[in-house]
Amino acid sequence: TVWAYFGTGNHDKLQLSQSTIQNSIFGIKDEKFPLFESTGKSTISKLKDVTNAGATCPKEDNLGWYVNLGRDERVTGKIEINNKVLFAPLYTPDVSQGCFPGTSALAELGYGCGKVLRRTELGAGLITGARIFNNKVYVGISGTPDNEEAVSLGGGFTKKGSIISGEIATPSASNSQKAVIESWRERF
To answer: Distance between CA 25 and CA 66 in Å, rounded?
Structure first.
């Protein structure tokens, strides 16, 4: 089984606000891999909604999971995977003042269940996809003035210049499913 992880959001019009759009983060499994077999159209009804804190993990007959994001919130960069944790960069525009930056957050989710392990609010500006190095997570942020002094953002995260760094969350046994990673390939 191969899993694909992605999030939705309009990258071309970051300040766009539409109440009819529900952005989400998805974890979808392909049980037929590496063989190709047409299965028809996949629908969201075959995925487990794990948005609420008390939601249970997907069952074997589910094709995966999804987490609904907040109003106008969207994924704005590549989702990073490290040690059974997904790192999703999120952005919410300031719809009342279109010329000002919105706010960013970094969501850390368990890769098998999609449960939110931690969500860190990172303040004004647009963050990049996360990068992991030496057990720390790093994201770039734009849209706000650079500060050469380190500023604490809370939750173990610090901003210095246009770089935010922090400690990574540790997945708990209850938030992950049994899975074995045999190989990894990233498509650009």
So the answer is: 6
The pLDDT assigned to 46 comes to 87
Query: What is the rounded distance in angstroms from the CA atom of residue 144 to the CA atom of residue 129?
Result: 17
Give the Cα separation of 79 and 87 in Å (integer). 6
Over residues 8-49, the pLDDT tens digits come to 987 777 777 778 889 999 999 887 777 877 766 667 888 999
163-167 and 136-142: which strand pairing?
antiparallel
Separation CA 84–CA 114 (nearest Å): 10
Q: Would you say the pTM of this structure is higher than 0.85?
A: no
Of the candidates 98, 116, 99, the one whose C-alpha atom is nearest the C-alpha of residue 107 is 116
The conformational region for residue 75 under phi > 0 = left, psi -120 to 50 = alpha, else beta, is: beta
- Most confident range (mean pLDDT) of 29-43, 120-134, 139-153 is 120-134
**Residue whose token pair is 């704005």:** 76
Cα 40 to the center of its chain, rounded Å: 27
The residues, ordered by sequence, that sit 6+ positions from 102 with a Cβ below 8 Å of its Cβ are 14, 15, 91, 92, 93, 94, 124, 126
Within a 13 Å sphere around the CA of 148, how many CA atoms are in the beta-carbon half?
Answer: 0
How far is CA 155 from each of CA 75, 107, 176, rounded to the nearest angstrom?
Answer: 20, 12, 22
